Hints:
Elements (H helix, E strand, L loop, with lengths): L1 H48 L1 H4 L3 H16 L3 E6 L4 E4 L12 H7 L4 E5 L4 E8 L9 E8 L1 H51 L13 H51 L5 H30 L9 E5 H18 L3 E6 L4 E5 H17 L6 E8 L3 E8 L21 H7 L5 H11 L3 E7 L3 E9 L5
The site of adenosine-5'-diphosphate has 23 residues, from helix 9 and helix 11.
Amino acid sequence: MLVFLLIGLVPILFFWKISLSSYESQALEQRISEMKYHANIISNLILNVNYFAIGDSGTTRDIASEISYVAEVYKGRILIVDRNLQILTDTYGLEENKTLISEEAVKGLRGESSTYTDKENEYIELVYPIIKPSEKEAQGIMIINFSISNIYEVQSGLAARLGVIFAFFTVFIILAVFFLAMYFIRPWREMMHAVDYLSDGYLDVQIPEKGFTETIHVASVINEMLNKMQTLENSRQEFVSNVSHELKTPITSMKVLSDSLISQPDVPVELYREFMIDIGAEIEREDKIINDLLSLVKMDKTSGEMNIASVNINELLEMILKRLRPIAKKRNIELVYESFRPVTAEVDEVKLSLAINNLIENAIKYNYDDGWVRVSLNADHKFFYIKVSDSGVGIPEEAQDNIFERFYRVDKAHSRETGGTGLGLSITRNAILMHRGAIKVYSKEKEGTTFTVRVPLNYIL
Ligand code: ADP
């Protein structure tokens, strides 16, 4: 508002000042030229009749009355002074026959005319030499004092009128600026309300996308950000509730088992043994969930620290397979390893082996007895590729998008038997993403599943 007011009012003030002062200077100039005009006429008269030589006579008196007339019209005073600086005529009749001593008068005798404007007392003084064009020295001088009070009267009238216009404009500009500022601020103010609400911690607001192009743009960017935050918040809440649920389940089972033992009197030792075995299994499950959770936290893309080293991937895969072979053997599942070339890559060995281990472990877990699991390794100049295929139960099409989510299991009821926590594939995916790699799944129910992993040979920060 201040800026607009300045822009609006400063030119008006300026205009006011300029117009008043230009009127004043123009009017003064005009007055001086009028005075010179009259001075010229009188001076010609004086020179024609040889006024200074003839002394007091009828002719000089005629001229004196002519001079008085001019002085009266202009509310002024005219003095005629001779070469000896003696005042011959004073239209006020005050100083006649006296001697005038002033610098201007001396200059006037030398032929120089001068003017002096006294704004305070509102008059102009003109010193005019009475001189013949052919002569060098003036015969005398004329001093004309004219009032300029009427100029200032007109000027103050003008100032009053301009003042009214100025006041009118000021009010107009203030009003216009006020409404304009309101208009410009309104969309931002609405946005501010919404943002205030946001800062109170409510994420479920949407900033109204209206107003100017800029506000619409800002609002839509904020809204987009809000949606992302909301999604993150939802998944965080879901994760926390899943974790609590998963951790509670084994504890609830143990509580039920122990309660049932305590509530019965004479429980046979065999039953104690049986229930204690069940409790042991639940503890193991709890331990597995906690371990998986810890791995997941470690693999969190944002907090993870990578321990990068040059690793022989062929050896890494062989080691994982060697570890898993006994489990496969139990169910007579064939484990095949195919390597197309030796591969060395910059990876975090612990994280990558955990990721691949989960894939192969799943391929065995979700397989039929007497099935097969094939692991292959290949590379080009940029990436290495690991493929884990199995002849297992497969993943239903509609579940394939969800298997990488935390705690997601296709068959919840069955997963307690297989010991699944639903965290394995999210750990795997996080580990692969931390290596700037990619993972994909192809699966057909009851036929089998293939996971393909692509990881850059050189670690990119
Ligand atoms: P879990 O600990 O239950 O194995 P994962 O995150 O490793 O959890 O896997 C999520 C789900 O994906 C599993 O519950 C399982 O249903 C399905 N799944 C994973 N790998 C395979 C596979 N090779 N064959 C069939 N289903 C699989």
